[in-house]
Task: structure prediction
Amino acid sequence: MQQGSDIAPQAVSTRMVAGMWWFFTLIMISSYTANLTAFLTITRMESTIKSAEDLAEQTKIKFGPMRGGSTSSFFSNSNHTLYQRMWAMMQQAKPDVFAESNIEGVERVQKAKGRYAFFMESVSIEYEIERRCELTQINGLLDQKGYGIALPINSPYRSLVSGAVLKLSENGVLGELKNKWWKKNGGGKCDLSGEAEGGANNELTMANVGGMFVVLVVGCCAAFLVAILEFLWNCRKIAVERKFYTEWIKDVVSWPDPVSPAVLFHLAASVSGTAWRNTYSNDHQDVAFQYAVERINMDTYLLPHSRLERHIANVSFVDSFTTGKRVCDLMEVGVTAVFGPESDRSKGIVRSICDTLEIPNLQTNWRGSLKLDAPCQLNMHPDPDAIALALVDVLKFLSWKSFAIVYESNEGLMRLQEVFKSRDKLSAKISVYQLSMDGDHRPLFKDIHDSTQTHILLDCATDHIMDILRQAKEVDMFGDYENYFITSLDAHTLDFSEFEHLQTNVTFLRLIDPNSPEVIDAVNDWVHGEREYGRVLNIRPETVRVEAALMYDAVNLFARAITQLDNNNPIEVTPLNCESGNIWPYGFALKNYMKHIKFKGMTGDISFDARGWRNHFTLDVVEVLYGGITKIGVWDSIDGINSTKTYEEKLIEIEKSIQNKTFIVFSKIGMPYLGWKDKNAEGNDRFEGFSMDLISEIMIMMKAKGFEFRLVYDNNHGSLNKKTGKWNGIMKEIIDRKGDLGICDLTITYDRRQAVDFTMPFMNLGISILFTKLVKEEPELFSFLKPFSFDVWIFLATAYLTISLLLFFLARRSSLVMEHKALLMAAWRRVNNGSLSQGSVGLPGTNSTNLS
Result:
């Protein structure tokens, strides 16, 4: 208990207090010693943040991403409570925490010296910390995403470019390129393998224990001061007693001034039978009617005892009264069938007269009145509802998820009703435009171009198609990325050779197969027949129009039906009068025979349903590519579309096309993706970087003619302005189809994928935090106090004082106390008994020596 003290408590109460004090002192000294050892011998690291959660829980360290970038979109669109809170903190922060570029963000982290953290893609952080040794990446990724190469939406090159990226990845080329531009070219300056996560044992320096010396010196100085005061006090007493006070003061005043010691220390800071003709005569249709009649008259099977006599009458397009009078005049001659006319206005009066006199009326074109209830009318044209279904099936086959309908007349809208009804089935966004009446369609196509639409469903007169496409080309709406679907069944007769150097895909349906024997034989008859008359007929199987072929088939249908009817019930041709009310008794029977006839004509298989509408026909799905027409599928009303062109064949066509194509590649300056190599050079020789090397490898793999790098004017990746709906940067150039490819550290996001197509990612990454490295914390001067908190020291001092007082009072009231020391001496010696004496045979007797 006493540990060398020459004074020991005598009473039980004082011994109990002394024992508890000794136990308390032992534990406190042991705890203090152990913690002090850890604090002094282990280098402390200033670990301020370890995750995004840490950032959100404090306010001293500001944080933010690049303004308008994919990282900003991640936070603003996130449903995660933490990220929503962090986004709110970023928006409310003053000053602004958003950086205008990654470079600005990195520099801000460096300058802030631990007061700013920057959110950016992990691969970009990897690049920076290879070159800036004071920066580090905070562990963990906030999301998973990738960098991709952007292409105009529905680009035909997407599959090939993606395939090339995949092969490069499998071959390890992507890894080599990354290693080249991340680590070798200017990288590798920093040793990232030995980044400390905790502390390391180190020898103690004056920075660790300097505070102890300060306490020692201060204590000694205080003791010296107390000693002087004690001395002066004692001297005064002696002087008074011996009456030498004045002389003694003189001696003291004459002493030299003492020199006060100074303690210097350093604090380091870290940081798409009669043909009635209208006045606009279709020469090929007249020729078809003429030679169909001649061929039937030469056929020994059809009408072997009769001959057909043809009459071609040109009637007014709009004057139905004159047309009706002409029809009635011919009826008085004797007519068994009427073919045509084409005009809706002329057609009405002709149909009415035929129904009244019961003369079959055969139509060969689509008009809105096709389905009107006409007892004697039969239309050779395919059922418009079936045609509409074919249009819908083709749109599904083409996988158009959005397209613009460009129509010329209200009749066109009627043809497209089924398309509008199938909007939900197609899951497509449809916009509608009407062609201008003045013939200038360029403003319309400019509007479509600005809407970024590349798929056009075009419904117009066949004779207008080429002019419309030329105007579209003038405003960059007939290029590599546009796709047109033309509803005209005569589109195959057009010459698309002027567009042979373009990759615009034009698709349409074809009712006439130019390779069928029926078409080839009929065209040969027409050409040779005209030649015998000394005329030249400029027609080929590929240029036969549908109405001419339908007229030829209509005459053949009539001949077959009237032959069967005449064999079963000989017929007579009788003159009729429109005003007498007489009818031709064989009309209805003849129409019914025609409805049951089935044969193969120029327009394929011909058959009719009970209503007299043509059914079970087939349509070829053809496309125009590089000026040539290729059959890619067949449609029928039962099975829909059967593709005749494989995916591999399509890729082969694209591969052949790019051998003569120079790709335009848009990018931005920003290492390691693209940087200046020589600003005075030309073309691609000006640049270098990961993007340049990657595109070069892709072009070699695709065997493309070449590529040309271009810079975007604003050096931005591409962000969407929510107010205007416009994009900037690389995204804008690709959306406007000014470039074929867009590459940089361009993150694939939802908004961007709605505007452009992306290849598969060439680099996977996530959002991480760029911050300054964990910095060694310089020890504080009084670090030896660190093992105990301020509260503990206060309690220790209180305990010290309390025990001292307690011992004093207990000692004064104990009858066993042998020594009658003063209060201060008793408390001081007893409290210090467990620490200072430690085997000493004597304790300091004065205040100054006790203090020191």
In short: The two ends are 23 Å apart (CA to CA). The longest strand covers residues 628-636. The mean pLDDT is 81.
